[in-house]
Amino acid sequence: MASLVKKKIGGKAYYYARECKRVDGRPKIVWQKYLGKAEDIVRCMTDAGAPAPAQPQEALITEFGAVAALYDLAERLQIAATIDRHVPKSGAGPGVGTYLLVAILNRCVAPCSKSSMADWFEKTALRRWVNVEARQLSSQRFWDNMDRVSTEAIGKIEQEITARLVREFEIDLRQVLFDATNFFTFIDTFNERATLPQRGKSKEGRQSLRIVGVALLVAADFGLPLFHHTYPGNQPDSTTFSSVIGDLVARYRAVSQGVEHVTLVFDKGNNSQDNLQAVEETPYHFVGSLVPTQHEDLLKIPKRRFRSLEAEGLPGVTAYRTSKKVYGAERTIVVTHNDNLFVAQTRTLLREMGKRQRCLQKLQRSLRAWRQRQGRRGKPPTVSATQKKVAGWLMARHMKKLFHVDIREQDGLPTLKYRFDHAAWERLQRTLLGKTLLFTDNDEWSNARIVKAYRSQHHVEAAFRDMKDPHHLSLRPQFHWTDQKIEVHVFCCVLAYMLCALLRRQLHTKGIDRSIGAILNDLSQIREVGVIFRPRGKRKPTIKTTLSTLSDDQRALYETLGLERYQNT
Fold first, then answer.
1. What pLDDT, in 10s, does the model give residues 118-150?
2. Is-above-0.85 flag for pTM?
3. Nearest-angstrom CA–CA distance, 293 and 299
4. CA-CA 20 to 30 A from 508: which of 19, 38, 157, 406?
5. Of residues 535 and 406, which shows the higher confidence score?
6. Closest CA to 254 of 335, 153, 155, 324
7. Average model confidence (pLDDT) for the chain?
8. What are the tens digits of pLDDT across the range 325-340?
9. CA 552 to CA 559: how far, in whole Å?
10. 3-state secondary structure string, 362-385?
11. For residues 302 and 170, what is the distance between their CA atoms, to the nearest angstrom?
């Protein structure tokens, strides 16, 4: 609260307006303005003595909307305080929690390197709320503070924040989703200090780059993250799932108090005999999927035996229910056929078949030209080279079954004949396309409920998609090249996603249903404008703050989130 203070200088009384706050337990003047002598104040308050309006000199524009909304949630989750409690730091200066909080908020709205963090921070309203100065945000300071955070500390911090998230915001934990993906990096091939970045099957097709794996456990309630794990990029999904089952059980016990039935949803990449046995021994129930080609008996079930689920909110979906022994136990099996999936898979295969057919036709004409001596320049083709080329074309799924190719040598040159197997294509459409095989231990659930549970996996897929967004929440590029720093960086990105998903959920409950990207884009355009007025005489410049012009959507976000309480604070 502002107060009026009188100072005596040279025997004369002068008046100041000032505002004090407690910083680190001590009173500190955060704002002060000189008002003048008593007669000056009286003259300014009368019409006759009112000075001419001051002229604006310049304007300071800072980011306000997005950082205010996210900072508010970070304070409610006590992120900085929790980090400082688990990673204490002696001496003066900002704590580890302050540095990581700045990095987390930056990842949400404008991901940049640590060397650029100070410039970004100085242009945001965070400089008023976070007890750190821009000059303290050097890349070396970030490096030093990140270095204090161990793998064990990350687990404890995440568990405490997650427990507070579930408790304070009443997160629905009846369905939780597990999945894993990888992120490519630009870490040098010859950097041997890091074991997490490895070459493997990049899910973004960047096979020439080292990748880092990240596994997430999220709630079906808006995809809020409950647990994460960073692992070597060349590690298979099933191995990753096996390695974190113990941690999943620990997280279950930490956050699911009062929830009697929690169902874990995962995809077929995590299936194995050991993994399913391990899940059986946990408190979780589960819904998973099977590899269709490993269960041809289920694929051969005629469509007339399927029943429609349209009345239960799944138009275009039919299902057949049975039971079967899989991975050592009798399970409920639901075979589904989705018309939309059938159309999408058919169109994709038709496109791929067309590509292969054009390639085979072109190769056939080329070989024929060689035989007719029309293409005799250059090295003549060989049978082995032709076989290798065709094998590459037919590596894609189903192509070997659909195209029968015969390559032989005649007069020292290869000949090629091929045919398309229409019967195999019809069989593929009849048995496989459009179908998904689900299995579960929730034997009492209806077919529709099992299907909807598995479909909720789109929440964890959306989480990974958002974390690969180059504009917001981007996990890369990561400017770190040691395992410990990579783990801390991923941890910050997961917490950033938690804040954004929580913001989306908060707005949804108040009638605003939009994507994370759309919310952040609009909030980021809410700027705080400080207009500096030229001083009169020897007085200091004055500043008045206001907001940039708000669109209807921006004003709705501003008012719904109550951001006015962060103005001028």
1. 999 999 999 999 999 999 999 999 999 999 999
2. no
3. 8
4. 157
5. 406
6. 155
7. 88
8. 999 899 999 999 999 9
9. 11
10. HHHHHHHHHHCCCCCCCCCCCHHH
11. 45
- How would you class 513 by CB atoms within 10 Å of its CB: exposed for 0-12, middle for 13-18, buried for 19 or more? exposed
Give CA angle at 183 (285, 138), nearest 5°: 115
Closest CA to 273 of 241, 302, 244: 241
Q: What are the structural domains, with CATH classification, of the chain?
A: 1-51 (no CATH), 151-308+323-328+450-494+501-507 (3.30.420.10), 309-322+329-449 (no CATH)
Give the per-residue pLDDT at 331: 94
465 pLDDT above the threshold of 70: yes
Question: Alpha-carbon torsion 326, 331, 335, 340, what sign?
Answer: negative
Residue 499, amino acid: L
Residue 431 token pair = 């048995």
Q: Which two tokens stand for residue 77?
A: 């989750």
What's the pLDDT tens digit per position in 482-519?
889 999 999 999 999 999 999 999 999 999 999 999 99
For residue 179, report the phi and psi dihedrals to the nearest 5 degrees.
Answer: -160, 170
CA atoms within 13 A on the CB side of 357: 10
Instruction: Please name the residue ranges forming H helices in 456-529.
Output: 458-467, 483-508, 516-524
Sheet holding 542-547, edge to edge: 56-63, 527-533, 542-547
Nearest CA to 360 out of 392, 329, 384, 338 is that of 392
Is pLDDT at 160 greater than 90 in this prediction? yes
